[in-house]
C-alpha cells in the first residue's frame, strides 16, 4: 500500500505540471463544450494508460535497443503538436462577430477523444518516465497484483484530474471570459503548443 501511495503522490504532482495535455483539455473546455473536454481528457488518460502499460511491459528496453523507434515517435509527436498549435493560431486569425451569448460549436466526439489521445501519445518520454518510476518503486520483480495496482493508480488519477479540469473550466464564467478574449487566448495557447512541439523535435 505504501508503494502505491507513493506512486499516487508522484503521479498527482506530474499531472499538476502544466503541459500540452492540460492545455488541450483546458482549451477544449472553454472554447467548445463540457462533453468535448471530458472526451479529450479521456483520450489523454487512455494514452497515459497505454504508456504506463508499455512501461510495465518493459518498452524502455526496446527503446534502448532500437533508439530509432523512439526518435520516430518523437518526431511524429512533435509535428503533431506543431499542427495543433498552427490550427489554434489559424482559428485566432479568423474574423468573428461573437459575444458572450454566442453558442459554442461542439467538437465531434471521436475527434475530441482522438485529439486527446494523440496529444499525449506523441511524447514517448512518458514510457521512459513511468519505466524509471516503476522500476524504482516496484522493484525488479513485482507481482502481477502490484503491477495492476500501479496501472490503476496512474490511470485512475489521470481520469480524475482531467475530469476536474474539464468540469471546472467548462462552466459559464470561463467560457464567457474566453469569448471576450478569444484571439489573445487562442494565440497564447497556439504559441504554447508550438513551443511544446518544437522542444520535442529539438530534443531528439
Helix residue percentage: over 70%
Shape: globular
How many domain regions?
Answer: 1
Strand content: under 5%
How is this fold's topology laid out?
Blueprint (H helix, E strand, L loop, with lengths): L1 H15 L3 H12 L2 H23 L2 H7 L1 H27 L15 H13 L3 H14 L5 H26 L2 H9 L1 H21 L2
Q: Describe it for me?
A:
The protein has 204 residues and is mainly α. It has one domain. The chain is built from ten helices and no strands. α2 runs antiparallel to α10, α3 crosses α7 and α4 packs across α5. The radius of gyration is 18 Å and the shape is globular. About 3% of the residues have low confidence.
Question: Quick summary of this structure?
Answer:
With 204 residues, this protein is mostly helical.
List keywords for this structure.
204 residues; mainly alpha; 82% helix
